[in-house]
Amino acid sequence: MVVQLLSAQIISPFNKLSIIDTNTSYTFLVSGHFHGASYNKSTLPAATLLAGIDTINSFRSSFFISLGDLFLDASETYINNYQKKLFNKLDMPLFNAVGNHDVSNDNFYEKNYGKTFYSFTCNSEFFIVLNTELNDGSIKDEQLTFLETALKEANSAKIKNIFIFSHRPIWSENNPVYSELFAGNTRTSFGENNYEDEVKPLLLDISKSKSIYWMSGSMADAPASFFYHKELESNITYMQTAIRDLARDAVLKVNVLDGNVSFNGISLTGQSLSSIETYNLDFWNKNSVVDEPFNYRLLPYLTKKMLSGYDFWIGFVSSLLLLLILRFIVIKWKRRG
């Protein structure tokens, strides 16, 4: 069993830039859903992201983390266009925690960019990137072993903070405090994921001595581009951030100074932003999202999305089998009559 732990030279699979040695003071950027709106079929990233590249580069951050759905479709056309318009223009290495759109095209993503879960260190911080699509939202088998190994490595005296990156906020699904906030997100198809039973206990143990930040990027309708909540009963902070081709689009800047962590929101459209900590449970519960009017131009896309969905075909085949069984029963009953 191979556990991929990136070490010494940490190289981006997208633009081949490496994380250089940093001082104890450095920054990195985080955001999700780079393809923007679900109807963006331009084969390019979100317009707000492309327009903000100069702003993003101006911070001279050590690296940029994408929280999944980097592509709308991980195909050759998308990859080539992203390479020209985004990857080659970033002045920092880019990494990605895959989302459902990234891995929808068989193993195309992994063949081009390698393993979908991995970890690395930078000064006093330990970074873990997970694939929440691998087992429908659960962290199991090889990936669970990887996580256990990574957390053991992170449990050293030199590590002060642990950052975990995933596309799905798997920490929210089975917790009533968060579950209704992200109802439009990609969720576990059948039953519950294993976050509460198997993953969180691992984090609670290590959180006694380390600060843990779990950042996710699957965020549909939302009152802001950020969600922030630090649990009172643990040293775990849960965060969400995503780009949707909207006026609210922004990226998260994480500042690390001698092991102390702080956050800034960077608007991609010039909007005024509050401190990240204000986008908390209270803010989200008070600010309902107004549904946008239905756009009939989306019908071809929505139809294609429905027909390509696994759940649709399970329902279709199950219904067809049920009809055939009922027809067989009716025919047999009529013959006996």
Could you characterize what this model shows?
The structure is a single chain. With 337 residues, the protein is α/β, with parallel strands linked by helices. The protein has two domains: 10-286, Metallo-dependent phosphatases (Purple Acid Phosphatase, chain A, domain 2, 4-Layer Sandwich), CATH 3.60.21; 297-336. Helix content is 28%, strand content 20%. The chain contains nine helices and 13 strands. The chain has helices at residues 47-51, 53-58, 76-85, 108-113, 141-154, 195-206, 281-286, 299-307, 310-336; strands at 10-11, 18-19, 25-31, 64-66, 94-96, 118-122, 125-129, 161-166, 211-216, 226-230, 236-241, 250-257, 260-267. The strands form three sheets. A six-stranded mixed β-sheet has the order 6-7-8-9-11-10, covered by helices on one side. It has a five-stranded mixed β-sheet with strand order 5-4-3-12-13, with no helix packed on it. The longest helix is centred in the last third of the chain and has 27 residues, at 310-336.
Note the main attributes of this structure.
337 residues, 9 helices, 6-stranded mixed beta sheet, 20% strand, Purple Acid Phosphatase, chain A, domain 2, 5-stranded mixed beta sheet, 28% helix, alpha/beta
Explain briefly what this protein structure is.
With 337 residues, the protein is α/β, with parallel strands linked by helices. The chain contains 9 helices and 13 strands. A hairpin with a 2-residue loop joins β12 (250-257) and β13 (260-267).
